[in-house]
Design goal:
It contains four helices and 25 strands. The chain is mainly beta and 389 residues long. The protein has three domains: 19-65 and 92-129, no CATH class; 181-252, no CATH class; 258-284 and 292-389, Methylamine Dehydrogenase, Chain H. Residues 199-253 are annotated as: Disordered.
Length: 389
Amino acid sequence: MFFAYGWPRALAAFEGAGQEDVVYLHLDSDYSLIVSTGSVQIWTGGQHRIRLGHLAREEITLKNEGLNKCAYWCSSRRLLAVLTYNNVLLIYGLHVSKDSALQTPGSGAGGLGPLDLKRQTFYMQYKIVVETTSNCTDLLGDSRGILIALSDGSFTLWSWHGKFRGQHNPFAVHTEAQNRPQGISRMLSISSRWAGYGGGPGTGGSSQAASLSPAGAAALHAHSSSPRARNSLGSQGSGGLTRSTSGGQQHEDAHPACIESMDYSPSMRMLAVVFTDGRCAMVRTGEGGLAPLEHLEFSHLLCSVGSGATVARIGSAAQVVAVGLTSGDIALYRLWGPATPGGSKPPEPLRVMSLADWGHGPESTGSVADLQWSPDSRALAVSTCGGCM
């Protein structure tokens, strides 16, 4: 990996008594954005690192709205979306002032002439309270909207103007009519396909049969009479009402899957979703990106329940997906799944990278905390909970 301009280097981002955790970091040729639990900072990109602006949230807002949890920077719109722990979505705009943060009369960076860097500040454009019974767990976006993941396994989409664009669960089955036998049959077959990846023994393939328990049938009938049933299974998440039968054994998906993190590749139109139970799933997006939300479609699973997936990152140039595990290892998978997504088990990884050969076991590294591909997908930066990189 090539670190330009003498990287890595330390930035004096948080000086003083208060120590803040960084929740989001964005680097490009124009800006370096650092979002912590209580503030937002913008620095110059390129060779020199000069702080252009700093926005610190007040104590009363931190108490009422919660600390910053995650964020996403849209470079084309120059807007920043921040999600707090109290399900509040904050959308900040960037204002360039006339005051100079740094001005040099002589040659600037690389001898390109005088350097005049303007101060830049963030200002609040929209504040939205996400009205949901679930917790907001992660967010990402594109130029058209902001995608928020919920703890019930569904997604909500918001415009950059703070408008609600819908809620959708690509892991549940969609039915357009309330009393269509064909729709119910399709719902059972696809739900059993998703629940069949539970990781237990006897998971069948294309010969799976699905049936509803009496309690599940009653819940399905009650749910189908509500307007939300036309779009998804609602708060039941992925397969929350189904029981897949195969090989004489029954596997019931009793709890909805909670989304832990996700990654989006606009060029590949694929979304990687990691669940708290260790699963990692791939979702196809529409031609227009994340909007409309209803075009999100479950593609295939990379990891089953108990695999220990913690984070996933898509390497678009190499068309591979890196999945960090609780063991500290990194599993590499092909981006495109098997030809038959209803297969009996998830695909095998192309390769599993481990530090065990160098004498670093899980007890010293801890689980994988984050991953980041280089632009050409030929190098991978890995950070672990044990403080290793």
